[in-house]
Design goal:
single chain, 233 residues, alpha/beta, Rossmann fold, six-stranded mixed sheet, four-stranded antiparallel sheet, 8 helices, 10 strands, globular
């Protein structure tokens, strides 16, 4: 399994027009993450998405270091992003090509050079996720579950070692949320999952509770979820 390390990481953000020039989004945090499925839970604005985005460099630390298998995310960002895939809450942030097959083919542009070969490889990826019949459809005509599944397929097409998913089921109905959740938890990749779905978090191997920019509980998912539920009363 891969290893994700946060070494005394702090994240600050500018607050234009605010009472202070900067606000601390994530307080000093040190973590060593080696489990296969790691859940990040906590209220909106707690800092869990910031923590998730540190893993592939979408957010850079203001202090400290983030390492992925020994690679400094800030210094070796390109190498790290080859190893770390990212799935957003809203798949519209990722689906940029007109058709389903073109979107997956875009993900494969570095692995497969020839256009025909790349399209064929993209169709194989779609078939593996049950999306082959939608290959020539516009991405704008897909349902919410289909769009999220397509976004996930595009990321996984590059075979990353780690998948970071930032609240991937939040915009989905119950059926599609279960489908995406089951798929994520069944992946061979190491998974870092920021989620409000506590049932999904309970199926992970480790959970971290983030509140007010700090990790306040870390350990077995059942214990961390109980801590969260108790603190929310």
């Amino acid at each position: 399994m891969t290893r994700i390390e946060l070494d005394r990481v702090v994240v600050r953000a500018a607050t234009p027009g605010g009472p202070a020039p900067e606000v601390t989004v994530l307080r000093e945090t040190t973590l060593d993450l080696t489990e296969r499925r790691i859940a990040l839970i906590g209220p909106n604005g707690s800092g869990k998405s910031t923590l998730a985005r540190l893993v592939n460099g979408l957010v850079e630390p203001s202090a400290g270091r983030v390492l992925v298998d020994g690679l400094d995310v800030k210094r070796k960002g390109r190498e790290v992003r080859r190893r770390v895939g990212f799935v957003f809450t809203d798949p519209s942030a990722q689906l940029v090509m007109p058709t389903v097959v073109e979107d997956v083919a875009l993900s494969l542009r570095h692995q497969v050079r020839g256009r025909e070969e790349r399209t064929a490889a993209a169709r194989e990826v779609l078939a593996s996720y049950g999306l082959d019949e939608l290959a020539d459809r516009s991405v704008h005509t897909l349902s919410g579950g289909q769009r999220q599944l397509l976004a996930l397929a595009g990321v996984l097409a590059t075979d990353p070692a780690i998948l970071v998913a930032d609240e991937p089921t939040t915009l989905l109905d119950l059926r599609n949320a279960r489908m995406i959740g089951d798929l994520l938890l069944g992946l061979p990749q190491q998974l870092v999952l920021a989620t409000h779905d506590l049932d999904l978090a309970l199926r992970c191997d480790r959970a971290l509770l983030v509140e007010d920019g700090a990790v306040v509980a870390d350990g077995a998912p059942a214990e961390v979820v109980d801590h969260y539920r108790a603190s929310a009363r």
